[in-house]
C-alpha cells in the first residue's frame, strides 16, 4: 500500500515538474498570446488526438484551446451586456472565471461533472421558463442523442431578447448522423470521438431556427489573419460561433 502511494506521489511530482518545464520553454518569446489569461510565448502546446482533423493548440498556462480563445476574443467586449443571469453548461475551467466575473448571477450545470454546481440533463432542465439572460453551451450538443429536445430546453429557459452562445464541432455543410451507431468504437470511427453521436454541419443553424431562435453566425474568417495566428483562434472543425437570440414575442 505504501509503495503504491509513493508511486502516485512521484508521478504527481514528475507531472508537475514536466508542466513547469514546458511552460518555461514555451513562454520564451512573445509572438503568441492567449487572450484569456494573457500568457505570451513563442508557441502554444500542441496536442494530437486520434481521428481529429488537426493538432490542438493549448495554452500552457490556462489550458484553453482554439474554441475557447476564439469565443472569448469575439465576445469579451459585448457579453457582459447580457450576463445578468448566466447558465453555463459543462463549465470549462478557462472560461468559467470570466463568465462568473461578468455575471450578476451564475449557475453551471452538467449531467455528472464534479466541476458543475448542479447536475442536470440538458434535455430535461429543472429550471423555470425564461429564467436566464445568457446561456453558454460549447461542445455539448454533439454528445446529445435528442438534440432537438436539448435545443428546445435551451430556448425555454432563455429570456426573451436573451442570448445563447452555442458552439459545436462543424464538418462541412451537412450534418451526418445515424442513430444505429451505438458502440464507442463505431462512434469513434464515424463521429471522431467515442462519445459523439453526430458530425454537425453548418445546417445546425436550421435546427436552432426550427426551435424558435434567431441565429447569427460568427466565423474565424471575420478576424484578421494576424490575430488568428497570434492567438491561435482557428481549428479545422471550430470556426463557427452560433449566437442565438430569443425573440421578444414567440
TrEMBL record:
Pfam families named among the record's database cross-references: Methyltransf_11 (PF08241)
Methyltransferase type domain: residues covered: 117-166
Key words of the record: Methyltransferase, Transferase
GO biological process, one term: methylation
Highest taxon, organism lineage: Bacteria
GO terms for MF: S-adenosylmethionine-dependent methyltransferase activity
InterPro entries the record matches: Methyltransf_11 (IPR013216), SAM-dependent_MTases_sf (IPR029063)
Record protein name field: Type 11 methyltransferase
